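Slide 14.
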Amino acid sequence: MITYVLSYRWRMRPMVLAKILEFAAGKDVVFLTSRTRTRRWLEQVAARRSGHPQT
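Slide 15: predicted structure.
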């Protein structure tokens, strides 16, 4: 189990990303790679929904 967790990033991640992109044809895919980017993305989504675009 520990080996799987430790090797996930270089062994499994590329396959998972390939599948996501395969099924995402024609859709927007957002990769949230940090808490800061996630917070910014959520703020942008909330601003768009409220009708006040934010950069």
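Speaker note: The mean pLDDT is 88.
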